[in-house]
Amino acid sequence: MSKNQIYSIGLFIDGGYFMEMNKGLQPNSKVNLKGIMSHIRTCISEKFELPRESCIITESHYFQGRFKAFEAKQKQKLESDRKFEDKLIENDVVFHYKHIYEMPDGTIKEKGIDVWFALETYELAVYRDFDFVVLITGDADHEMLARKIKSLKKQVVLLTWNFADSSSTAPALREEVTYHIDLNAQLKQNPDLMHKITVSAGA
Predict the structure, then answer these.
(1) Which among 45, 46, 47 has a CA at the least distance from the CA of 6?
(2) Short-list 13, 9, 43, 94, CA closest to 196
(3) Pairing label, strands 108-109, 132-136
(4) Which residues face 61 on adjacent strands?
(5) pTM score, two decimals?
(6) What is the mean pLDDT of each run of 10 residues along the chain (203 residues)?
(7) Contact 1/159 with Cβ under 8 angstroms?
(8) Residue 167: what pLDDT?
């Protein structure tokens, strides 16, 4: 790779996984989206020996299921949903939502979000001039997505941060990507990184 050009990074966030990251940090902290995006640029520049200023996130997308407004208001989630959307907008992240529903037994039903994530990510990888495609997810179902993006001769980067065995990264996905940003491992080596990638829960 030449060091005298701009390298485009496309960022794709699995909202369900991102929320699990936030749950792991509660009640005192939450993920600093801007800090995570900055850290991604740093990691890519160091791994691929490129000037950090040449590694630019040119497009970001966030996929998640959410309740309809009336249901969100009943569950006292409407304000927090809007505040989170504000953070996405402030960081130029395009959000993609599908409605979710609560079943009579209390389970949450969502349909098609993972498929939408994969289809949209692959389509944009084809039509945008990304040099790097970054996935924030831990879902084994995205193994083939990573493989297909690599077939386009693009680098696939996975970022994960797991707080419990139930949310651990699928080995098949981890092995398929070009480069894995494992925040668990990085924080063990550099605890000060926590201050960059989190903010106070009240912020």
Answers:
(1) 45
(2) 43
(3) unpaired
(4) 12, 94
(5) 0.91
(6) 80 93 88 97 97 97 86 79 90 91 70 89 96 92 94 96 71 91 95 95 74
(7) no
(8) 52
Peptide bond into 27 cis (omega under 30): yes
The yes or no reply on domain 8-200 and CATH 3.40.50.1010 is yes
Structure tokens at 199: 């903010």
How many helices and strands in the chain, by DSSP H and E? 9, 10
Give me the helices (H) in 61-156, please.
Answer: 69-74, 78-90, 113-127, 143-151
Could you give the residue ranges of the DSSP H alpha helices within the chain? 15-25, 33-47, 69-74, 78-90, 113-127, 143-151, 171-176, 183-189, 194-197
How are the residues of the chain apportioned to helix, strand and coil, as percentages rounded to the nearest 5?
Answer: 50, 25, 25
Delimit the domains of the chain by residue range. 8-200
Instruction: Return the SS3 of 38.
Output: helix
d(CA 43, CA 180): 10
DSSP state of 193: G
3 state SS of 190: coil
Instruction: Give yes or no for a contact between 124 and 154, defined as CB atoms under 8 angstroms apart.
Output: no
Task: Report helix, strand or coil for 63.
Answer: strand
Phi-psi region of 106 (alpha: psi -120 to 50; beta: other; left: phi over 0): left
Q: What six digits make up the tokens of 130? A: 């990304």
CB 158 within 8 A of CB 146: yes
